[in-house]
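Inverse folding, one chain.
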């Protein structure tokens, strides 16, 4: 267990939460969910805080979470880590989007995603040790086939980077290509609801929340749903 350093920034037109995390006692960090517009502020933070990037992790493959991920990974010659269930979104980003939203994003982004020079598949991986942290990798399909939760423990308990699986007051949509409502329901029942009430949830969009708050107030975590 280590004290966890967390910095966050909101990037891109879909206001994606991009996180920098590492052990407080070290200088190495990883990026979680480097969406469109993340490259410049991440590089600036690394330079200003004298931090060393050692990896780029994606909670899932939607382009608003990985638009700058492979660019950052290749720029700093570090691995890009994502579940292979979403690999098709690296080569064909339109796969996970409705045509109107994807057309707008491509107009903003301006081209295909670069191929990652170093690729790590999170499928079948229970945990990774990186940036002085022991991170859990928990499959959580439904929003996309390759969604994962990323977890860490510090002195205050469990931290969960939950991507688009669960938000403050809501959960990830399943009506986009690759979404699966039954898989999402199983993920919410078997993965999310068993989390400890004190767990801090750091979602891909919107404010930080806690499992206690979501268990009480999130309608999608009720038995009726």
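Residues assigned per position:
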């Amino acid at each position: 267990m280590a004290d966890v350093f967390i910095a966050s920034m909101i990037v891109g037109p879909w206001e994606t939460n991009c996180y920098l995390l590492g052990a407080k006692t070290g200088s190495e960090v990883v990026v979680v969910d480097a969406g469109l517009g993340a490259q410049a502020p991440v590089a600036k933070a690394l330079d200003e805080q004298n931090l060393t990037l050692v990896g780029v992790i994606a909670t899932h493959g939607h382009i608003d979470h990985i638009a700058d991920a492979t660019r950052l990974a290749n720029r700093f010659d570090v691995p890009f880590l994502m579940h292979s269930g979403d690999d098709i979104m690296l080569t064909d980003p339109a796969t996970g989007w409705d045509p109107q939203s994807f057309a707008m994003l491509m107009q903003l982004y301006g081209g295909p995603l670069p191929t990652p020079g170093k690729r790590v598949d999170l499928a079948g991986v229970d945990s990774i040790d990186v940036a002085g942290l022991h991170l859990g990798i928990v499959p959580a399909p439904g929003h996309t086939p390759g969604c994962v939760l990323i977890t860490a423990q510090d002195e205050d308990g469990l931290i969960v980077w939950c991507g688009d699986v669960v938000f403050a007051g809501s959960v990830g949509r399943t009506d986009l290509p690759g979404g699966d409502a039954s898989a999402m329901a199983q993920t919410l029942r078997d993965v999310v609801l068993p989390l400890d009430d004190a767990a801090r949830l750091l979602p891909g969009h919107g404010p930080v929340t806690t499992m206690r708050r979501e268990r009480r107030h999130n309608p999608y975590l009720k038995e009726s749903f």
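The domain at 4-221 is CATH 3.60.15.10 (Metallo-beta-lactamase; Chain A). The chain has one domain: 4-221.
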